[in-house]
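Dear all,

This email documents one entry for the complex benchmark we are building for the journal club exercise. For each entry we list the sequence lines for every component of the assembly. Then comes the predicted three-dimensional structure of the complex as a token string, followed by one or two observations. Please use this as the template for your own entries, and keep the labels exactly as they appear.
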Amino acid sequence: MLPVAISSIILSGKGATMGLFSKDIKTMNDLFLHMLDDIYYAEQQIAKSLPDMMKKVSHPELRTGFETHLRETEIHVKRLEKVFEKLDVTANAVDCPAIDGILKEAKKIAGEVDDKSVLDAALIAAAQAVEYYEITRYGTLIVWAKDLGRDDVVGLLNTTLEEEKAADKKLTSIAEAKVNRRAA
Amino acid sequence: MLPVAISSIILSGKGATMGLFSKDIKTMNDLFLHMLDDIYYAEQQIAKSLPDMMKKVSHPELRTGFETHLRETEIHVKRLEKVFEKLDVTANAVDCPAIDGILKEAKKIAGEVDDKSVLDAALIAAAQAVEYYEITRYGTLIVWAKDLGRDDVVGLLNTTLEEEKAADKKLTSIAEAKVNRRAA
């Protein structure tokens, strides 16, 4: 509970008047900022995990896809920092058990597979679970930003959302066309 | 590692010839069965979590949506048991850190919000993260089932996938139409 509470204090600017152990997300704006902190953490964790996934991949097109997505993910982090700047709040990554769980499962399954083609298929599925998590989060953030009248950040969030969707489509096409067929 | 290893032994029928601590997912079929075990566990955990989420919801349409989805989730569990039956393997839920993390985050965020409308918005976002996880997993399972020539289970998996997509659309329409606007 502590990181959320501290984050809310910093972001809401209410300082010491807000109790550390009270329910600190009061408004839609607080919730929006909390979700931004959450995806900011998630993007950083994904950027840390992708190099390890890349090392395990055999299919050349898949490796290129992972490399491209690592560069995109680094840009997504910077783009979120622009969002925080426009909102005039401090970027403040908070723990995100969801992405931690998704990445933990990816690592776990990759450790259970030896055959290169089967491993490629497992890594595609793991990467798609990551993409889908990001797609749902950015989708939610865009709806909330619009409702809060923060159209100035909708464009930035939408650019990333479209890149996540494109990455997912690329993974699907590789999965359907080559990897699974070879592995089966 | 142990549950995966045990699961693979049971499912692959290779018995004692397969080492408990070796890499036990050898083929696309092993990977497919492992992913089925994973979503079987996930559906059960979702069914356990939905009643608690339902208690916290204020918006009547949202509560009805959660009630409907709880009934659907219970059917999804039974439908997966039919898939296992058709494949002639034992249903065997394995730990799934991804869904555990997604549900943990849902619980955490719900505990941080007091205002009813903001809590509804947070619960919708949490439910959509769950839906998206299921959508990506069933999507992957369908591609793999087709590649493995198991067209006899594709229909069952696809029925669930379509229900998950419909549940997500319903959540989006509630979020866009009412909850957020009221909360903002």
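Observations: Chain A touches chain B through 58 residues (CB under 8 Å). Chain A is about 80% helix and 0% strand.
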